């Protein structure tokens, strides 16, 4: 009887260890590039494939390539602002679908390389717009700008490949600058916030609040997607962590270093202002 009990204990221990391994293996399948998902989606409906390609395009903004991370980032955007989440969804799908229609390289399409510029264009158009949320006219420049990014990406890639340079976010920068130049604060259909003239901002104080500094680190990561809320920014950081813990550490360190540089620059500017007035 004692031998039977010992055997049962050993069997239970092996069963628990096997369960933990299965859970760990399942979690590991959700990390990295999730290449196994592409093989699984090969014979699925085009709509589902397009959704996966679009989610990969969402994560390409942060140099990642994980559809589950893309779903978390989209959830964070909808959490912060449903309107911004909708614009981001429309932008990434419009640019990805345009690349499919144009017959662009399938590896780049499935890898999301034609989606992230459309994502950035749509989010920034929403941020710059002064018409408020749920201004449906904004969908027209979002669709047009996101689709145009594909043409620019294709043309710039063929040009810059001669010098082994990536096109990266050149299409996004070109489209958003042209959009802002063609519209203005008084545009009847697509008004945007006026630019702050140089010297209009008052110098900030040099008092440092530790909690605000700590809070600003994840917010700095969220600002990549024009997200200024703490909760959604933490979810975006979790999405980066899911893809690569090392990339998440770099994102946190980069945000922290950027904040430190801003404090040093702010302090230096404040000292120079005081010196100029003879204090």
UniProtKB/TrEMBL annotation:
Subcellular location per the Swiss-Prot or TrEMBL entry: Cell membrane
GO cellular component: plasma membrane
Chemical reaction(s) catalysed: urea(in) = urea(out)
GO molecular function: urea transmembrane transporter activity
Transmembrane segments: 45-63, 83-102, 109-128, 134-156, 163-181, 234-253
Membrane topology: Multi-pass membrane protein
Pfam families registered for this protein in UniProt: UT
Record's keyword terms, sorted: Cell membrane, Membrane, Transmembrane, Transmembrane helix, Transport
Family that this chain belongs to: Belongs to the urea transporter family.
Name of the molecule in the record: Urea transporter
Organism: Acanthochromis polyacanthus (spiny chromis)
């Amino acid at each position: 009887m004692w031998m039977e009990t010992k055997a049962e204990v050993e069997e239970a221990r092996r069963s628990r260890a096997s369960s933990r391994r299965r859970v760990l293996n399942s979690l590991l399948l959700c990390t990295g590039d999730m290449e196994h998902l592409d093989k699984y989606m090969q014979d699925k409906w085009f709509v589902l494939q397009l959704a996966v390609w679009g989610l990969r395009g969402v994560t390409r903004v942060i140099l990642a390539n994980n559809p589950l991370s893309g779903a978390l980032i989209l959830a964070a955007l909808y959490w912060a602002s449903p309107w911004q989440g909708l614009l981001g969804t429309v932008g990434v799908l419009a640019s990805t679908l345009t690349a499919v229609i144009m017959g662009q390289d399938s590896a780049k399409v499935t890898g999301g390389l034609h989606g992230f510029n459309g994502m950035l264009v749509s989010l920034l158009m929403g941020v710059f717009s002064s018409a408020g949320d749920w201004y449906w006219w904004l969908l027209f420049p979002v669709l047009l700008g996101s689709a145009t990014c594909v043409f620019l990406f294709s043309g710039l890639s063929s040009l810059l490949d001669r010098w082994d340079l990536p096109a990266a976010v050149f299409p996004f920068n070109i489209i958003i600058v042209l959009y802002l130049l063609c519209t203005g604060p008084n545009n009847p259909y697509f008004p945007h916030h006026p630019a702050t003239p140089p010297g209009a901002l008052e110098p900030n104080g040099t008092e440092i609040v530790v909690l605000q500094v700590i809070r600003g680190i994840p917010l700095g990561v969220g600002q990549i997607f024009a997200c200024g809320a703490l909760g959604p920014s933490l979810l975006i950081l979790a999405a980066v962590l899911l893809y690569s813990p090392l990339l998440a550490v770099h994102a946190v360190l980069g945000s922290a270093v950027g904040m430190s540089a801003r404090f040093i620059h702010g302090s230096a500017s404040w000292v120079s202002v005081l010196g100029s007035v003879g204090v």
